[in-house]
Amino acid sequence: MEELGPTDIMADTPACRATSNRGKAMKIVMAIIKPFKLEEVRDALTSLGVHGLTVTEVKGYGRQRGHTEIYRGAEYAVSFLPKIKIEVAVPSAMVEATVEAIAGAARTGQIGDGKIFVTAIEKALRIRTGETDEDAL
Amino acid sequence: MTLMRTTGAPRRLPRALGSAAAGIGLALFAGAPAALAAGPTPAKGDVAWMAISTILVLAMSIPGLALFYGGLVRTKNMLSVLTQVFAIVCLAAMIWVCYGYSLAFTDGGSLNSFVGGFSKSFLSGITPESTAGTFSNGVVIPELIYMAFQMTFACITPALIVGAFAERVRFPALLVFVGLWLTFIYFPMAHMVWYWAGPDAVAAAARELAAATTETAKAAAQAKLDAVNADAGMLFKWGALDFAGGTVVHINAGIAGFVGCLIIGKRIGYGRELMAPHSLTMTMIGASLLWLGWFGFNAGSNLEATGGAALAFVNTFVATAAAALAWMFVEWAFKGKASLLGLVSGAVAGLVAITPAAGFAGPMGSIILGLVAGVVCFFFCTTVKNTFGYDDTADVFGVHCIGGIVGAIATGVLVAPALGGVGLVDYAANPGTASPATYVMATQVWAQIKAVLFTIVFSGVGSAILFKLVDLVIGLRVSVEEEREGLDISDHGERAYNY
Question: Any idea what the CATH number is for the domain that residue A20 is in?
C-alpha cells in the first residue's frame, strides 16, 4: 500500500476516469483515513446525498512511521497504525464528487492522511426488497 | 547467655498459646492479679482489626493480583490468569485448614526447627475460645482469626508464582504443583521464620528462673527457659527479622517463579512477536488493590490494633509511594518517558520491600528503602532480564524476589533505633514487658543475609525438584497449538471478553 498525496487520487487520473465510464454503472469508493477524521468525512458525504457507509477499524502502514512502545524491559516497534476504512457504493456519476468530498474532509496535509481506491461493482442487491443495481444503492 | 538468645527475636507470630503456658506462670505466682487467673481475653478492637486485615489480604489476591497479572498478558490468556489465581486461593485455603496451619504453627517435635506437626490437622482442638499470642505479653487474639489471617498468606504466596510462567502453563499441572509446593516449601518456610513460643511463654519461664532460689531449681528453670527459646523455627532462632513475609512470601515465591519460568521455557515467539500487556487499565486497578490490601498484610501482621500497627501502616504508605516515584523517574531518565506500568511496578516493588521491615523501620527509613527498591527492581526487570533473556512474564523474580531481598537485608539496618527504627526486643530480661535488646548492626544484617540465602537455596532447589516432578508425571506446558490459540479457550473453554 503506497501512500498517495491528495493530488494523486486515483479517481482523478485519466485512466481511472476512463475506467469509471465503461461497464457497470456503480463503483465502490474505499478510503483509508485517520480515525479522528471520520465524522468530518461522514458529514461531507451526507451533504452530497450519499445514503450509506460502512466503517471498519483497520491497522496498516504506508509512509507514516510507527512508534516504539516500552513495557518494563520489553520494547516493541509498532509499525501498524490504527486507521479507519470506509466503503461507500455510489452510482458512477457520483464517483468524482464522492472522492473529492472524502479527500477534502480527510485531508490534514500531514503524512498518513490515507488513500482512496475506486473499484467497479459487478452487481448490487437490496436484501429486503430484492431491488438490484443502482436501485439498491 | 541464655537470655541473649531471645534478643533479636523476630516480633512476629507466636504460636497459639496453650493453656499450659499460662498455667506455668500462674502456678508460680499465686499472688498474680485475679484477672489473670482466667487467662487473657481478646480485646474486641484487636479481633475487629484482624478480621478486617484478613479480608484486605484476601482482596490482594482476588481481585488485586489476578487483575495485576491479567492485564499484563495477551487478551487470549486473560481468563486463564484470573482462573489460576482464583483456583489457587481456594485450593490453598482448603489445604491450610486440613494440615497447612498445623504444619506451620505447631510444635514439630524432633523436626521442630524445620516444620510443625499434625496436631491441629483439620483445626483439631481449635474452638472460638482458643487464643493465639501476639507480640505483647498478656495480649491474645482468637486462634480462629489468627489461623484465617495466616491462611490468606498461604493463599497469595503460590498465586504470586503464576505470573512468572503465565500464558503457557497447564492448569491441572499448576494445581498439583501448588499443592506440593505449599506442603514442602511454604509451610516449612512459614514455620522456620514465624513459629515461636510467644512472649508469655518466654516471660513465664524467665519469671520461674528469677524466682528460683536453690542451685538445682535455677538449673531446672534455666533448662526450661532454654527449652522455650528453642521452641521456634530455625530462621527465627538465627535472629532473622521478617515482619510480614519478605522471606516467607516474596523471596520464596519469587525464586520459585524464576525456577519455574526457566524449567517451563520461554513463550513461543518471545522476543520476536508483540506481547504487549492487553490492558494496563486492569493492571493499574490490580496494583491499586494490592496496595490497599497490603495495609492488612503489613499492619495486620502486628496482630494487635496498636501503635505498632500504625507504624506498619504508615511505612506501607510511604515506602510504596517512594518506590513508585523512583521507578517512574529512573525510567523517564533512561527510557525517555514516564510510564504507568513503571509507576505501578515501582509501587509493587516498594510494597514487597517494605514487607519484612514494615513494623521495624521508621517512616523516613522506609522512604529510603522504597527509593532503593524502585531503582534496583527497575534494573532487574529491564537490564538484567534482557541480558539473560529469561521469560518471566510478569516479572515475579525482578519485583518479588529482588524486592524481597532488598527489603529483607535492609530490615537489619533500618530496625536500628539510631535510624528511626524500633530496635530489638527482649521478652526475658524483664518478664512481662518487652524490653529493648542490644542491637548490633553487623550481627543483625548477617542474620538477615543468612535468612535470604537459606530461602533462595531451599525454595529454589525445592521448587526445581517439584517442577521437574510435575513435568515428568503430568506435563507442565501446553501444546504449541494450545499456546497459539490461548489458554482461555484451550484450558477453560471460555473467553475473557466477548464483544
Answer: 3.30.70.120
Count Cβ atoms within 10 A of the Cβ of residue B295 and give its class: 0-12 exposed, 13-18 middle, 19 or more buried.
Answer: buried
Instruction: Give the residue carrying C-alpha cell 490468569.
Output: B81
- A115: in domain: yes
Looking at the complex, does the CB of residue B435 fall below 8 Å from at least one CB of chain A? no
pTM for the complete prediction?
Answer: 0.86
Which residues of A fall within a CB distance of 8 Å from B73? none
Which sign, positive or negative, has the C-alpha torsion A8, A9, A10, A11?
A: negative
Q: Does B395 touch chain A (CB under 8 A)?
A: yes
pLDDT band at A65 (very low <50, low <70, confident <90, very high): confident
List CB contacts (< 8 A) between B328 and chain A.
none
Determine contact: A73 vs chain B, CB below 8 A. Answer: yes
Q: Is residue A1 part of a domain?
A: no
Its domain, for residue B426, covers 3-488
State the average pLDDT over residues B454-469. 98
Which residue matches cell numbers 490490580? B286
**Total beta-carbon pairs less than 8 A apart between chain A and chain B:** 28
Phi first, then psi: give them for residue A74, nearest 5 degrees. Answer: -90, 125
Domain count, chain A: 1
Put simply, the answer to whether B277 touches A71 (Cβ < 8 Å) is yes
Residue type, B128: P
Q: Is the pLDDT of residue B10 over 50?
A: no
- Over residues B106-126, the pLDDT tens digits come to 999 999 999 999 999 999 999
| Cβ-defined contact of A78 to B274 (cutoff 8 Å) | yes
pLDDT of residue B38: 60
Q: What is the CATH number of the domain that holds B32?
A: 1.10.3430.10
Q: Report if residue A58 sits inside a domain.
A: yes
pLDDT (mean) for B322-344: 97
Q: Is residue B397 part of a domain?
A: yes
Please tell me the total count of domains within chain B: 1
A73 to B383: CB separation less than 8 angstroms, yes or no: yes
In this complex, is the C-beta atom of A76 within 8 Å of any C-beta atom belonging to chain B?
yes
Flag whether A80 is in a domain.
yes
Residue B323 lies in a domain: yes
Q: B335 touching A, CB under 8 A?
A: yes
Chain B residues in contact with A69 by the CB 8 A cut-off are: 276
The whole-chain average pLDDT of chain B stands at 92
Helical H segments across B241-339, by residue range:
252-264, 280-300, 307-335
Please tell me the predicted confidence (pLDDT) of residue A105.
96
What range defines the domain where residue A31 resides?
A: 6-136
Q: How far, CA to CA in Å, does A18 sit from each of A88, B212, B293?
A: 20, 116, 70
Query: Could you tell me if residue B498 is inside a domain?
Result: no
Confidence of residue A35 (pLDDT cuts 50, 70, 90): very high
- Within the 91-130 window of chain A, which residues sit less than 8 Å (CB to CB) from chain B? none
Q: What is the mean pLDDT of residues A19-34?
A: 76
With a CB cutoff of 8 Å and minimum separation 6, the contacts of B276 are: A69, A71, A74, A76, B74
Residue B409 lies in a domain: yes
Calculate mean pLDDT across residues A42-53. 92
Q: How far is A57 from chain B (nearest CA, A)?
A: 14
Instruction: Tell me whether residues B342 and A72 touch, CB distance under 8 A.
Output: yes
Name beta bridge partners: A78.
A67
Interchain proximity B381–A76, CB inside 8 Å: no
